[in-house]
Amino acid sequence: LKTARSKAFTTPEGRATAYENLKKHGINGLVIIGGDGSFKGAQTFSNEYDIPCIGLPGTIDKDIAGTDVTIGFDTAVNTAVEAIDKIRDTMDAHDRLFIVEVMGRDAGYIALHSGIATGAENILIPETKTDIEDLIASLTEKEKRRKLVNLVVVAEGGEYGDANKLEAIIKERIPNADTRVCILGHIQRGGAPSCEDRLIASHMGYYAVESLLCGRHNVMVGVINNKIHYTPLDKAVKEKQKIGQEWMKIVKILAS
């Protein structure tokens, strides 16, 4: 499958062309894999042309309401963990402070999960306000204890999500810190899907087709507590999956 944004589809004329293409190819229902932007377009298109649409949550950010899992997240976070594990080898060998920037413009799930899994001393995410003074104090205290190896994982969309700018702040405040930056970037968007993602996609895909066949439409297929759950597309668009505060408590305990 390919993917692309379409400016034309945001216009009535563009959607009319899309509808004519569907009729030409004998397509009378759509399964939309994506996030809130895809679902907004699907909802508008369905309302205008009475085309049944079923949404599947496909995003590495894992920030869609109405589901505990999204297609792509597990693969992306495992890619991040694998990369950070390799970074730890050189970090430990040279007693360095490493800042690793992962994806997550509005959601910190990749940073949170990969940071916990790799034993990061600090995890900075958009959902939580970062006190830079607390961060500097924590790193300074560790330096005094000769704990020179420190891993800071940041989500790109956070207040201090730009790893290079954060490095500049740390270097200014802690001149002796041997600091390095690694921005993982688009490596998180590719690669062979994990077993978990393949199972999730197959599970949701089955129920998406079943939904179309039984006349259900304008809903997103999700999984909550390991059970299939249907969420109206308008609700999936309006709400976001929120990170539980208990996870941040776990981060603080593991980092101490």
Shape, per Cα inertia axes: elongated
CATH topology of the largest domain: Rossmann fold
Distance between the termini: 45 Å
CATH class term of the largest domain: Alpha Beta
Number of strands: 8
The domain tally reads: 2
Give the averaged pLDDT, no decimals: 89
Q: What helical percentage do the residues reach?
A: 40-55%
Write the SSE topology.
Elements: H1 12-24, E1 30-34, H2 36-49, E2 53-57, H3 73-94, E3 97-102, H4 109-117, E4 122-124, H5 132-144, E5 150-155, H6 163-173, E6 179-183, H7 195-213, E7 219-224, E8 227-232, H8 233-238, H9 245-255
Parallel strand pairs: 1-2, 2-7, 3-5, 3-6, 4-5
Antiparallel strand pairs: 7-8
Helix pairs in contact: 3-4
Give a quick set of tags describing it.
elongated; Rossmann fold; 4-stranded mixed sheet; 8 strands; 4-stranded parallel sheet; 9 helices; about 260 residues; 2 domains; alpha/beta
Model description:
With 256 residues, the chain is an alpha/beta fold. The chain folds into 2 domains: 8-71 and 193-238, Rossmann fold, CATH 3.40.50.450; 73-190, Phosphofructokinase domain (Rossmann fold, 3-Layer(aba) Sandwich), CATH 3.40.50.460. The chain has helices at 12-24, 36-49, 73-94, 109-117, 132-144, 163-173, 195-213, 233-238, 245-255; strands spanning 30-34, 53-57, 97-102, 122-124, 150-155, 179-183, 219-224, 227-232. Strand 1 (30-34), helix 2 and strand 2 form a beta-alpha-beta unit.
